[in-house]
Amino acid sequence: MRRIILVAAMLLACASPALAEKTLVQSPDAPKAIGPYSQAIKSGNLVFVSGSLPFDPAGRTDYSLLDVTTQTKRVIDNIALTLSAAELTLDDVVSATVYVTDVNDFAAVNAVYASYFKPPYPARTFVEVSKLLRNVKVEITVIAATK
After folding, report:
1. Torsion angle in degrees (nearest 10) through CA of 81, 86, 88, 89
2. C-alpha angle with apex 46: 57 to 140, nearest 5 degrees?
3. For a tag site, which of 12, 85, 96, 110 has the least CB within 10 Å?
4. Number of domains composing the chain
5. E strands along the chain, which residues?
């Protein structure tokens, strides 16, 4: 009987999803979420920052009308604002995914990216997509690790 109970308990433990800690990370200085998602979530020692777009936190500048270099700077600045709410910096980023609407913008985006991140650089994926929200040219999402 003990063996059956032990096997059943092991099966239940393996079959049930892991319950991860989820803590909201939100910066009043970064652009507000425009949908049902969080700016960032902390789980364990990782912080998952939602895709960041080149939105002006003050709402004064329409970055969709500006070049990809300017948009990329705004995106990374917004990421830094969100990370600061978790008491992290860009130096804590371990992974990034960059989405662009034109892969020919790689050099311009890469130049801005390299000016913000230091070696050892985060792992990175660079992807061309057909369209981004509000017709912007770049979106970046990152994962950062706490010390």
Report:
1. -10
2. 40
3. 12
4. 1
5. 23-25, 40-43, 46-52, 93-100, 123-128, 138-145
Nearest to 86 by CA among 40, 118, 53, 51: 40
Residue 28's pLDDT band (cuts 50, 70, 90): very high
H-assigned helices in the chain: 2-15, 68-85, 106-116
For residue 100, what are the CA distances in angstroms to 79, 104, 136, 137? 16, 9, 9, 5
Range of the domain at 129: 21-145
What percent of the chain stands above pLDDT 70?
A: 87
To which residue do tokens 């009987």 refer?
1
Q: Compute the half-sphere exposure of residue 77: CA atoms within 13 Å on the CB side of its CA.
A: 13
Q: Can you give the pTM of this predicted structure?
A: 0.86
Closest residue by Cα to residue 63 from 134, 9, 141: 134
Give the CATH number of the domain where residue 52 resides. Answer: 3.30.1330.40
